[in-house]
Design a protein that fits this description.
Number of domains: 1
Low-confidence stretches: none
CATH topology: Rubrerythrin, domain 2
Shape: globular
Strand content: 35-45%
Mean pLDDT: 86
Number of helices: 0
Largest sheet: 3 strands, antiparallel
Helix content: under 10%
CATH architecture: Single Sheet
């Protein structure tokens, strides 16, 4: 996984397509970010170093 820090935030890679994903400086674990290349929704599992994983699909509970 590629990790770099710069003026615009922390760069890491999408776990789905390998494209660069920029995380803002105040990103928190549990946030969902989008890959601008493939559109995957990624959950931030950890911030130092940044760890991303495909976000879980939300299932309808139909009022249960």
């Amino acid at each position: 996984m590629f990790i770099a820090t710069g003026e615009r935030g922390t760069m890491t890679t999408c776990t789905e397509c390998g494209a660069d994903v920029t995380l803002h400086d105040d990103v928190e674990a549990g946030e969902i970010v989008d890959c601008t290349t493939c559109g995957a929704e990624l959950e931030v599992l950890d911030v130092s170093p940044p760890v991303l994983e495909k976000a879980p699909e939300l299932e309808e509970d139909w009022g249960e």
